[in-house]
Design a protein that fits this description.
- This protein is mostly helical.
- It is built from 4 helices and no strands.
- The longest helix is centred in the first third of the chain and has 37 residues, at 4-40.
- It is elongated, with a radius of gyration of 20 Å.
C-alpha cells in the first residue's frame, strides 16, 4: 500500500489530471457544438452529400473522444475517493496490493495486474 507521502503525490497528480481532463471535456464539448452547427449549415442527406459523411464521421469521432474523457474523469474521481477512504492501492477483486509500477503507470487502476489479465 502507498505511504502517506506517496499518497499526497498521487493525489496531486490526480488533481492535475482531473483539471486537464475537465479542460479537455470543455474543449471537446465546444467541438461537438461546432460540428452540430456545421451540420445545420449543410444538406442533411448524408448518403448523397459528399460533406455529409465527413460531418457524420467528425461528430462520431468527437463524441467518442468526449465519452472517453468523461469515463476518465469518473476513474479519477473514483481513485480520489479510494484515497480518502483508505482503499487506494488495493485490488478491488483479490484485495492484494496493486503493484507500485502499475499504479505509477496507471494511477486510476482498480485491480492488480493478475486480476486485470
Amino acid at each position: 500500500m502507498p505511504t502517506t507521502s506517496s499518497l499526497a503525490e498521487v493525489r496531486a497528480g490526480l488533481d492535475a489530471d482531473r483539471a486537464a481532463t475537465l479542460r479537455r471535456i470543455d474543449a471537446l464539448s465546444g467541438d461537438v457544438d461546432s460540428v452540430i452547427e456545421a451540420a445545420s449549415d449543410v444538406a442533411t442527406d448524408d448518403e448523397h452529400d459528399p460533406e455529409g459523411a465527413t460531418i457524420a464521421f467528425e461528430r462520431a469521432r468527437v463524441g467518442a473522444l468526449l465519452e472517453q474523457a468523461r469515463v476518465h474523469l469518473d476513474d479519477i474521481d473514483d481513485a480520489l475517493r479510494r484515497i480518502d477512504d483508505g482503499r487506494y492501492g488495493a485490488c478491488e477483486i483479490c484485495r492484494r496490493p496493486i503493484g507500485s509500477e502499475r499504479l505509477a503507470a496507471r494511477p486510476v487502476a482498480r485491480t492488480c495486474i493478475d486480476c486485470a489479465t
